[in-house]
Write the structure tokens for this entry.
Amino acid sequence: MTELQRLLIAYDAHRAAGRPCALATVVDLAGSAYRRPGARMLVTADGQLTGAISGGCLEGDARRRARQCIQRQQPTVVTYDSTDPDDDLQFGSALGCQGIVQILLEPLAFDNVSNPLELLRNWWEGVEEPAVVATVFHLDGPSTAPVRVGERLLLTTSGAVQGNLPTHSALYERILADAQQALADNQPATRSYPSEIGQVRVSLEILRPPVRLLIFGAGNDVKPVVRMAATLGWRVRVVDGRPGLAQATRFPEAEAVHVVPVDQVSTLPQDGSFALLMTHNYYYDLAALRHLLNAPTPYIGLLGPRKKYLRLLEELEKDVPDAAQRLQQRLHSPIGLNLGSETPEEIALSIVAEIQAVLAGRPAGFLRDSPHPIHHRIASDGELAASAAVSAVCELGG
């Protein structure tokens, strides 16, 4: 289950119980921090928390401020600074991340279909494509300004736009253009816009649909793979030709389990899901690999020794001479990272970890040996004000 799913489940429960809520969102970051922009935490008026905005060091203070936000019904931006080595105030030593983090706190109106969680829900329920959400989190201007903190637009790759950001203005067009660029680059960003009311700052967060994972095979070794993948919020389908194994009761975390005889594998939809071949059946793997040759599948993992893949490739090339070229960048065999795995659970860990590395475009390996930052730097056309005080609060909109 993803963090967004947990937030929506908690939000629905609080709404049904009539418990007022506020949403805390990381909207900007300079330097290092445990969570990146887009991390969210739901806070109720009685202090219940769902989600996280840090490794635990900000949640206590953010909860207190979020409850104040609910009482005042005003959006609030909080800045936490841990970059000053001489600052031994409330958060400097606790953060330990050498970063400046800005948190947007917003009271949630349950009857507002444009509140941030409802906006995210609309995208999630129809999720088939990436999107970008642009959030106004800072402005220099009076409450009569044409935009307000917390107003958003959500843009999908197909061009659909939702949200409550006022349209028909030069500022809207500029934000929309930058959102389109961030989506095209697949990179989050922070943008500043000078306007007649002063500076407007906007966070551009990339929303990525959950990974779709198609597993050929329903043996016992597939069970821990399904469990781990589902824990990450991936949508998993299991197919196998054996009715005794391809049963939903064996894979309760899977989105679907289907019995597909080997001669019907070619009828499966080619939807770009990541694929795992774990059937332990040479001819079923061959049928699956033949089916995936022309599919937009970015990752194909084949369980078994390298000689098995070479034999399969030789068989495929009888009918498709360029089979090796088509599979070269996509097929991983032997499957998984080199973790020294032996048990089914350990092997599942190595497989899921390899898929995550492919998703992130990372080479895996030890972080201690990498000369690069853990996270990609958020693109920004300006830095946070150096004078930002530790936990300084700017009440906006009033």
User: Anything to note?
Assistant: The CA atoms of residues 178 and 191 lie 8 Å apart. The radius of gyration is 24 Å. Residues 344-360 form the longest helix (17 residues).
